[in-house]
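Sequence in, structure out.
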Amino acid sequence: MPFSIKDLPWGKDALKGISAKTNEIHHDKLYAGYVTKRNEIEEALKTADRSKSAATYSPYRALKLEETFNADGQILHELYFETLGGDGKPTDGPFVRKVRLDFGSWEAFVEDAIACAKAARGWMITAYDPTDGKIRNFLADAHNHGGVWGSVPLWTIDCYEHAYFIDYGSDRKAYIQAVLNNVNWDAVNARFAVVAK
């Protein structure tokens, strides 16, 4: 069954500091492109010649690499869009309480998330790490580089230039603050509540 492009859970002009034009390009072109390519790759894999698979290069290897790139691009963008549309104010809930426990304070968590987003070439991903039961901020330089196996993504910041260049030029810090001002922490709390069970 093909993957489908999910609608934004908020209007394209709903975010403070992130324009409707940026949201339109980000969702309708870039995110939609990952979904489309993922479907194309899934279809191509059905008839791919596995007999000539090779680690140095083979069409099968190329498909498998792009499969993870496009799948992760789809998944991370869906999480990014799902957790925006709020007022950026943390709400009491299991995620916020766990963050305070793991980072010592909400402010320390936000400081770490900002530093991680500034250092990332692709994504800042807040995730639950089941190996030690902690919330962590990870960075990924590409959709399929930097994930931690078994961790469950809870919130993301897209740090690729396409996410902010129209509105902020090269001022990534201002964009990160705009994202923080639009996070729907209730959505993040809900995601964590499922993991915490």
